[in-house]
Amino acid sequence: LSLALYAGSLCAASSAAFLYHDYCIIGAGPSGLQVAYFLQQAGRDYIVFERSHAPGSFFALYPRHRKLISINKQYTGKSNSEFNLRHDWNSLLSHDRRLLFRHYSRDFFPNADAMVHYLEDFASMLKLQVQYNTAIIHVTLEKDEQAWNGHYFLLTDQDRQNYKCSSLLVATGTWVPNVVNFPGSEYVEGYETVSINPEDFAGQTVLILGRGNSAFETAENILGVTNFIHMVSRSRVRLSWATHYVGDLRAINNGLLDTYQLKSLDGLLEGDLEDLAIVKDKKGKLHITLRFYLENRNTSAGIDSIILPQDELDNFATRAPYDRVIRCLGWKFDFSIYNRSLRLMPGKGNKKKYPQIKPSYESRGTRGLFILGTASHSVDFRKSAGGFIHGFRYTTRAVHRLLENRHHGVPWPSTVYPITQLTNSIIKRVNEASGLYQMFSVLADIILLRENATAFEYLEEYPVGVLAELETQTGRRAPNGLFVVIMEYGRNFSGADKDVFYYNRAVGEAQHAWQSNFLHPVIYYYKHLPTEREMKLRPPDWPLPRPDAVHHIVEDFLTDWTAPNAHVLPLRRFLENCLSTDLRNFFAESCFFFAFTRQKLPPFCQQGYVGMQGLLGSEGLRRHAVEAGLLEDYAPRDFSGDKTPDSREGSQDQLLRDHAIPVRPLQHLVNAKDE
């Protein structure tokens, strides 16, 4: 009995040692705070673990030279807050208008310190549940059939405190520096520790390893004080204006390209960094050679005994010695804290710095483990903005909506409209929606048609990669077909080798809309929800499988898709062809005429005029329509040809205002006509 009691007390103590929450979030960076906000708004049980004493610790150090490359556009000429988020790349989503980044900085490219201040306010003003100074050092699984996902996540912090949660949301970003090991790599300084004082580089010759924004940012800082700067990387430079990918080289950092192409000593080279070797001479100068020259040689014997490339090729590009070599190779995800039971594996190829996840942002190896923020960028790497605040604030919201449906039975938010509002709904969204605009080809609006196409249900910003799972992921049904509204660039317009400034690069005619190059709306129509097999077999670089019909809204220089003839009319006719119906709007006089001459009324008349809805008549409205040539003047006249006295007009005006006059149903009108 004593042993049994002792064992029971141990079990109770063990259970009490685990602090439980439904949702555990690792990291209080932008994506961690963003998902915390959505969970708090929904009233869920969650906790955020942050290893530092404040949120956004990454921005306290990076970028080293403190200038962000995310734009902060103060003015757009519009007051629509959703539209303005298209050009605000730093704000997180919330209901509090004070938490817009423009209140923290007026700079177009803000200082990183403003981001630190902003994230601190976001966490404190919204009272998010963040536990600071808590570094999670180990994560494993505990099988339990009663758990949401068939297991619990067990977390341990630096003080050996244990936590248990049903769903794990990883928002740590990518913060482990990428390091390439080669002979002599011990002489290389890292971007994370190198001096940011230009005077420390005065009169020096510098080699930079890497070709991303951190490499060019470093070069930009010392460009005016060095003898010359060389930059070497495996791949050629990728300009963001050519690739349309914001993670490639931005114009704000590309001063080195000017000095290279204008022959001012600086230069760019291509080569595999793993083939390099660095040898240090007696004066402390660093000489670049190739690894195979050092094979079977003793590098400690001195540089005089080592054959350098210039000994055989006297014009070898990097034959001049360097004073410093700086590594600027970016960052990767930290896999070290995750137990093998989670099966959290790195991606392949150029995505190996990210964990493998599904298009729903859930781990491929473990149900209930979601990757958020920069670390989730493998879904749209080099395609869209999912690795940056202005992109992942929307993908994080999408993940929250998926979780709400899966664990709490809350369907994906939607709005039902009559079919007559279909054209207007699409035009409104493509002209103001920020999520569609920033996460082009990744997030899409889904329009689910009701039976007989009399109404539709509108779902905003759903991940198209899991379109085949729409019914299970959203709790919405799609038995009658659907439209998918998405934004795309032209198929052959983006690429490192593309000339995006060529003559006649833009399309202006609606009949050539399918050839549009710049970002523009595309509407896909499916009679049935695509299957998982159709999604896998979709054409290369297509976000969706082949539809039953597709429509491109022609690109617009102002990104304003409201032109009646170029944008609205072709869209309406496309929708009408797909639905075999008439989506035009009509005056009451026309609806009245159609009721006697047609067996089927247009939806606008059926849902409006016959349903006793629409504008109420008045003499002023009738007179305006007559003057505009929209109606004939049926006002009674006397024998002299003049209109009847004012008293008659007054009685007619009263008649037009009387909206209580009963209207017979359509079937009665048709029967009367047949009789």
Automatic annotation (TrEMBL):
Keyword entries, A-Z: Endoplasmic reticulum, FAD, Flavoprotein, Glycoprotein, Oxidoreductase, Signal
Keyword Oxidoreductase: yes
Stored InterPro entries: Auxin_biosynth/cation_transpt, FAD/NAD-bd_sf
UniProt region (Disordered), positions on chain: 636-660
Signal peptide: none
Cellular component GO terms, alphabetical: endoplasmic reticulum lumen
Keyword Transmembrane included in the entry's annotation: no
Gene Ontology terms: biological process: ERAD pathway
GO molecular function: flavin adenine dinucleotide binding; monooxygenase activity
Cofactor: FAD
Family assignment from sequence similarity: Belongs to the FOXRED2 family.
Oligomeric and partner information: Interacts with SEL1L. May interact with OS9 and DNAJC10. Interacts with TXNDC16.
Functional summary from the UniProt entry: Probable flavoprotein which may function in endoplasmic reticulum associated degradation (ERAD). May bind non-native proteins in the endoplasmic reticulum and target them to the ubiquitination machinery for subsequent degradation.
PANTHER family: FAD-DEPENDENT OXIDOREDUCTASE DOMAIN-CONTAINING PROTEIN 2, FLAVIN-BINDING MONOOXYGENASE-LIKE PROTEIN (AFU_ORTHOLOGUE AFUA_4G09220)
The protein, known as: FAD-dependent oxidoreductase domain-containing protein 2
Organism this protein belongs to: Phaetusa simplex
Primary gene name: Foxred2
